[in-house]
Here is the input.
Amino acid sequence: MRDAFDACLKCTLCVSQCPVMSVNPDFPGPKALGPEWYRQNQAQMTAPLPHVDDCTFCQICESVCPVDVPIAHLIAEQKAEKKHSLRVWLRDEILARPQWVARMAWLGAIPEPMRRLGKISPGVQLPKPRKGQVRTLGEPLGADPRRIGLFVDCYSSGYDQELVMRARELLRIWGFSVTLVPGEAQCCGAAAYAAGNPGLAKSTGHAMFRTLNRKKSDYDVIVTLNATCDGTLRDEWPEFYGLQITVPVIPFDEIANQAPELFWEQLASLPAEPGAWITHTTCRGKVARGDGQLWELAKRAGFWDAEPSDAVCCGAGGSYAFKAEHESTAEQLAFRVREQALSSEAKGIITDSGTCAIHMEQAASIPARHPAYWLYARYLRYLEEGETHETKTS
Ligand code: SF4
Ligand code: SF4
Here is the structure.
């Protein structure tokens, strides 16, 4: 890994793909902030460069680098060396621990004076927690011997219990037994790394790893709701945290594709979901698995007029969009989704991250929800139409 730090060929491929460079002319870009800073720093302990914090940690630069320079991770190391005022430091310490924010979800919207004092962006509002009632979907359609540990990310744990219940109910009728892991708001470390705190990311990740190990007699497979957590457990933990998870980790959209055929046949008997839809995979999900899986799932579920999002990175970036100094960049990154939604008159966004969902929902003014939310809604419609038909014929 350390060889790769110094392997830059100066090809500038990373520069051509960086989404922040395309909207923020002050941003020095991945080559200058990553390998070039690393080389200079090795020689003379260079101070962090201006605008290093403007990197969203989307990792698109890393995905195109022909010699695997861990560019975004080098930038995160550099961010960690930057000195901040006390109030910015305090804000960043809190936002790098989304499990704390999730546990305070009941507090609701951030009061204006606290928002100004804490330099929280006026462009992003925390939503009211969605508790929601979830109706049972009936008898299981199959039986799968694998016991699933449903990995609930911090955001969903605090703000979207309705999603957690919908996902759990879907897994149940697909024939799985399900346990929620970790079972309370706890973070995998992704948010702290993105915020430029690799030390905290690693200690947070190690704590989560211990929790998962303690519960490992309860599950055979981990199914992740959030694509960023998924990439963290599968790719980041072994490479950057020194952690190797021993059970298979499967993202929700992949396990949905393994649902009993009967489920898919029943959904296919419904008319297509009307209108246009946008699918949006998180940056880390895109880097790890491409953009197509979510889109294919949407089509299979009946969202026939779905198109992948035009935004490479929507600007949510963990806690990035919550920081006042990133308001303009985050807005410009989400602007593409807004334009796409307006031109196609999209009805909604299907996305595998709660924080991308908050940011895009506010930017595009249409609902943005996890695929499990929409799949559950489609299946409920199938059941209700069947019940209506039975009532009419009896
Ligand atoms: S991680 Fe994303 S925003 Fe940061 S330098 Fe790389 S491509 Fe640009
Ligand atoms: S893509 Fe990799 S090799 Fe090319 S300039 Fe960027 S860091 Fe250097």
